[in-house]
Design a protein that fits this description.
Elements (H helix, E strand, L loop, with lengths): L7 E5 L4 H11 L3 E6 L14 E3 L6 E4 H4 L6 E4 L5 H13 L2 E4 L13 H7 L4 E6 L14 H7 L24 H24 L4 E5 H7 L3 H9 L16 E6 L2 E6 L3 H10 L14 H6 L1 H12 L4 H10 L4 E3 L3 H6 L1 H5 L3 E6 L3 E6 L23 H9 L3 H10 L3
Parallel strand pairs: 1-2, 1-6, 2-5, 6-7, 7-8
Antiparallel strand pairs: 3-4, 9-10, 10-11, 12-13
Organism: Ferrovibrio terrae
Protein name: CoA transferase
Keywords: Transferase
């Protein structure tokens, strides 16, 4: 048994935040029915530059972007602009435990697929709306994209090299973190609502906003401002409260050294051949190293750049000084620990036979994640799902196909 194998999710979301949430639910065992537009599907199926190729024809197939967020789901194609399509989705929602959608504010109301409409059909329904700015407030009608949210939510103000240095200026994260974190927070909210339903017997509405998530995820940077009334600044790879805690040059690249306490600093000083740093009043404690950041960082850099990455990491690990390389993605998957943890999986795929996939980080001892279903082809499960969930026979399915409803 898997943790959520008694839960049915109607997934009306697309792109990343919503599909990331529903992929988590599928990994935990939920039956996730991904609803897509006939002939088109989720926008990300076409988001390159990396695509699968049809093994038989060589034609371009689904993108790697789509594959990243849709493992474990069943795809059905339904035209919700038609009355018949709207009724199909209402009937599916009446049997579902969860609906996830990321349409613009009020976008599903005209189809009778909003929470107020569906909760009348299914009072036990947990309904999660994901938007850029939430259901209330002056920005609620706006479209919200990850890049915009990283800027508006403060992340870019604390990401990037310091002003005045080469390459200085705000930077977005290299992954759409606002989307990914919103998918994770949405998963948590849905699980909480399902647990509440065990007690109350009723579902509820969940209002998730990318901006809310991004502001919450500022973590200590936000409380630095709220408590101290000081606006955090970009520090490149440095840390606002700990020194040395950044990347340092080596003869063949860079190494991260993350000294978390004065004892670790003493070990670092010994390894770099400067035991006098331990008693130097400028460097002996973290608070003093903060005041003399430029001096100690320059001194450490002079020593690290004479060592290779592998030599320095091996030496620091022996002394139990936290450190690590800055890996490219190929080196990530070649890392022996990553391999030992099984972070690359193979999943079945109807068009390709099998596909490589990144493992879920959720490790449950009694109800583990299984990898028995890969990302679905567009509309791959339409007939099967509608037959199983709504009892449609072959004649009914043929009629809906002929009308272009499914």
């Amino acid at each position: 048994m898997r943790a959520l194998d008694d839960i049915v999710v109607l997934d009306l979301s697309r792109v990343l935040a919503g599909p990331w949430c529903t992929q988590n639910l599928a990994d935990l065992g939920a039956t996730v029915i991904k609803v897509e537009k006939p002939g088109e599907g989720d926008d990300t199926r076409k988001w390159g530059p990396i695509y699968l190729k049809d093994p038989a024809t060589g034609a371009r197939a689904d993108s790697a972007y789509y594959l990243a967020a849709n493992r474990g789901k069943r795809s059905i194609t339904v035209d919700m602009a038609t009355p018949e399509g709207q009724q199909i989705l209402r009937d599916l929602a009446a049997k579902a435990d969860v609906v996830v959608e990321n349409y613009k504010l009020g976008g599903l109301k005209k189809y009778g697929l909003d929470y107020d409409s569906l909760s009348k059909l299914n009072p036990r329904l947990v309904y999660c709306s994901i938007t850029g700015f939430g259901q209330t407030g002056p920005y609620a009608p706006r479209a919200g994209y990850d890049f915009i949210i990283q800027g508006m939510g403060g992340l870019m103000s604390v990401t990037g090299e310091r002003d005045g240095l080469p390459g200085g200026g705000p930077q977005k994260a290299g992954v759409a973190l606002a989307d990914v974190m919103t998918g994770l927070y949405s998963t948590i909210a849905i699980l909480g609502a399902l647990n509440q339903r065990h007690r109350s017997g009723r579902g509820q509405y969940i209002d998730m906003a990318l901006l809310d998530v991004q502001v919450a995820a500022l973590a200590n940077q936000a409380t630095y401002y709220l408590v101290g009334n000081e606006v955090p600044e970009r520090m490149g790879n440095g840390h606002a409260a700990i020194v040395p805690y950044q990347s340092f040059p080596t003869s063949d690249g860079h190494v991260i050294i993350a000294v978390g306490n004065d004892g670790q600093f003493a070990k670092l000083a010994d390894e770099l051949g400067h035991p006098e740093w331990k008693s130097d009043p400028r460097f002996a404690t973290n608070i003093e190293r903060l005041h003399h950041r430029a001096e100690i960082v320059a001194a450490i850099s002079e020593e690290t750049k004479t060592r290779t990455i592998d030599d320095l990491i091996a030496a620091l690990e022996k002394r139990q000084v936290p450190c690590g390389p800055i890996n490219t993605v190929d080196r990530v998957f070649a890392d022996p620990h990553v391999q030992a943890r099984g972070l690359q999986k193979t999943v079945p795929h109807t068009g390709q036979g099998t596909l490589p996939s990144v493992a879920s980080p959720l490790r449950l001892s009694e109800s583990p994640v299984s990898y028995d279903r890969g990302p679905p082809l567009l509309g791959e499960h339409t007939d099967k799902v509608l037959a199983e969930q709504l009892g449609f026979d072959a004649a009914k399915l043929a009629e809906l196909h002929n009308k272009g409803v499914i």
